[in-house]
Amino acid sequence: GLARGLEAYLADYPHGCSEQIASRAMSRLLLMTEVDFGFDQAESAAQLQSALRLLTTRQNSDGGFGYWSGDATTDYLSVYVTTFLTEAKEASHALPAGLLDGALNRMKQLARAKDGNAQLQAAAIYLLTRNGEVTSNYVLNLRDTLEQTSKGKWQSTLTGAYLASTYALLQKRNEADSIMRTYWNAADKSPKLSRWYYDWFNEPQVQQAQGFTLLCRHFPDIAKGLSYDDLKMITDPIRVNHFNTYSAAWGVLALKSYSKLAQQANVKLAIQSLPASGSPAILAP
């Protein structure tokens, strides 16, 4: 129900910068196969193709993306659009020739930057790994930098969550699990309901959704122990209509990832009554 509301909001959003195009398309991509939503598959596929064609007009010669045609590359935006393109590829949708290859070329530039943003680098390396690139050297170089600049701290950040997920993809489970457990144990799980006035890509609500999505996707043994309270950081902002296009799309990603986890891990849900007095009673197991 929450995802359906977010999808309706994104579908009706009147503006169309590259972030908004990717967010609208991301939501429809993730939800078009949900039988209960009743989306027409041919119409949804046509909408995705339209979004992909628009994104080709926003891609620069370095493979990165600007907000509008002719705008300079913005790396946070480029990582986000590459995330959407990767989701589309993994869902077997045809991509315009060169669109993803160009985006991955930009991810390689970010991954090997000497003085880049660590979180962006970790996300770029993760996306490259998901797309079949050999990223071991990128990982080692970033680890060396992190050990010099934030030794003992980076594991507790979203950078650590992205690196842990990359290790999981590289089949290095011990290292992956160790870092992700450190991240998740330290993560701020309180719902973020206050208005965010700073850079859109650093919004705490989105940072939480990213970490939650990575946990559900790559660490089912850890994530299957999630409680209802752990879900509140995703669900509570949505319930009070606290979201924008970017956080709405990441909210759908988080909910979809948890849904898949629940199916795979056989997570059991129940509905309880909460009487004014007495003990709660299970209404539906």
Describe the structure.
With 285 residues, the protein is mostly helical. 61% of the residues lie in helices and 2% in strands. It has helices at residues 2-11, 18-31, 41-56, 75-90, 99-111, 118-130, 136-149, 158-169, 173-186, 204-218, 220-223, 228-239, 245-265; strands at 271-273, 281-284. Strands 1-2 form a two-stranded antiparallel ribbon. A hairpin with a 7-residue loop joins β1 (271-273) and β2 (281-284). The longest helix has 21 residues, at 245-265.
Quick take:
The chain is mostly helical and 285 residues long.
What is this structure's SSE topology?
Elements (H helix, E strand, L loop, with lengths): L1 H10 L6 H14 L9 H16 L18 H16 L8 H13 L6 H13 L5 H14 L8 H12 L3 H14 L17 H15 L1 H4 L4 H12 L5 H21 L5 E3 L7 E4 L1
* Mass-distribution shape: globular
Strand-residue proportion: under 5%
Spatial extent as radius of gyration: 19 Å
Number of strands: 2
Class computed from helices, strands and strand pairing = mainly alpha
Stretches where pLDDT is under 50 for at least 5 consecutive residues are: none
Q: Give the SSE order as H and E letters.
A: HHHHHHHHHHHHHEE
Mean pLDDT score, rounded?
92
Count of discrete alpha- or pi-helical segments spanning 4 or more residues: 13
- The strand order across the widest sheet is 1-2
Helix fraction by DSSP (H/I, runs of at least 4) = 55-70%
Biggest sheet record: 2 strands, antiparallel
- Ends distance: 19 Å
Assembly state here? Answer: single chain
